[in-house]
Design a protein that fits this description.
By secondary structure, this protein is α/β, with parallel strands linked by helices. It has four helices and seven strands. A hairpin with a 2-residue loop joins strand 1 and strand 2. It starts with a strand and ends with a helix.
């Protein structure tokens, strides 16, 4: 399994278990996000602590999550970014669109 998904209180926490969020894994993440959103969840935390690399399809899945939460009136938070992934997010200026924290605990405090 590439993800651990845990629902607690008013949020769902998705932990990416793979080292790469790329074309092999991103479509499955998008599907999970649509299912979670379809169940009425509007607050999602994506824990990327174990993920060392993210390509454009991974960022596409992240932006889908952000849009789904925003449209539902909730909050999408991404946390635990590796230095390489954080650099790509900054270069692509996604840091201006996404809510980013260091830890899941910090993300939970925002929700």
């Amino acid at each position: 399994m590439n993800f651990n998904i845990e629902s607690k209180d008013n949020k769902t926490i998705i932990q990416v278990q793979a080292e790469k969020l790329d074309t092999h894994i991103a479509p499955a993440l998008k599907s999970e996000l649509v299912v979670i959103s379809g169940k009425g969840e509007k607050n999602i935390i994506l824990d990327m602590q174990k993920c060392l690399y993210c390509d454009s399809s991974g960022f596409s899945a992240i932006l889908v999550a952000n849009r789904l939460c925003k449209n539902a009136g909730g909050l999408f938070v991404i946390c635990g970014l590796s230095e390489a992934v954080e650099r790509l997010i900054t270069i692509s200026q996604l840091d201006t669109v996404l809510t980013i924290t260091d830890t899941v605990e910090d993300a939970e405090k925002l929700i």
